Amino acid sequence: MQRRSRGINAGLILLLSQIFHVGINNIPPVTLATLALNVWFFLNPLKPLYESCLSVEKCYQQKDWQRLLLSPLHHADDWHLYFNMASMLWKGINLERRLGSRWFAYIIVTFSLLTGVVYLFLEFALAEFTDEPGFRRNCAVGFSGVLFALKVLNNHYCPGGFANILGFPVPNRFACWAELVAIHFISPGTSFAGHLAGILVGLMYTHGPLKKIMEKCAGIFPSNIHYPGQQHHFNSSGYSGYQDYYPYGRPGYPEEAPMNYNAYTAGLSEEEQLERALRASLWDRGNRPSPPPYGFHLSPEEEMRRKRLHRFDSQ
């Protein structure tokens, strides 16, 4: 297996710097494992992007179902990886400490598969309703669909406060929809259907039957496995305090001191961190050939042309 790029991966370096700044010991185990797995597959992809991306044509019509597993773990470039994993770091710390590591791992696996299934359904429906076969060939990679689902969960558990979307304060309960639109104004090549699929999966968990179905399938442990201590609340300016709570509605559980993540994020919210990284990304991309967008369609001829260009650039 070869690395995706031989150049300097500024996004990867920035991600690793942020992880070590937070401190590995401060990152819950499932979140840390998810970060490590995505970085590993970026550096050592199992297959090229064209063979791991998810589309109706490749997955459903050609029965290449392994793409449901490969697509979330592969990224188009280092900045795609950085944006997704920086968001995963933020959401993972919040949600894993609230839900417990085993249930959070169960959520990650379920959301990864289900987001891909919903994405295929959306693209198939668009192709049928618009009579446009190109939707069947739209091929998407990346963890962002899962992240949109996790964002729905995070906003569900912390409904108060505002998120900063392109400089505008947006109530948390609407932040997912605002971010869905904003991302596609900033980067039109991203997979709208993939991100929408994540939101729909998150809503299926918070307002639909998915959580109960998962509990019945798991059987051996409930969803309220917890980190004892405080219930943390975040708003657009980062950590904003906590309130005491008691698991199972009764006292007697030990409490741990709340962690001030401002020390690790310089007081920036997730959206503000990503906005700052986006500026760096745009500057970096202006100094090197642009990668394929995160939701993209490449014909075999285009893929061969890109490989020839990469070989030429590396010489």
Automatic annotation (TrEMBL):
Lineage of source species: Eukaryota, Metazoa, Chordata, Craniata, Vertebrata
Biased composition (Basic and acidic residues): 299-315
UniProt KW keywords: Apoptosis, Differentiation, Endoplasmic reticulum, Hydrolase, Membrane, Mitochondrion, Protease, Serine protease, Spermatogenesis, Transmembrane, Transmembrane helix
Molecular function terms from GO: serine-type endopeptidase activity
Enzyme Commission designation: 3.4.21.105
UniProt name for this protein: Rhomboid-related protein 4
InterPro entries: Peptidase_S54_rhomboid_dom (IPR022764), Rhomboid-like_sf (IPR035952)
SUPFAM superfamilies listed in its UniProt record: Rhomboid-like (SSF144091)
One Pfam family in the UniProt entry: Rhomboid
PANTHER family (alphabetical): RHOMBOID-RELATED PROTEIN (PTHR43066), RHOMBOID-RELATED PROTEIN 4 (PTHR43066:SF14)
GO cellular component: a single term: mitochondrial membrane
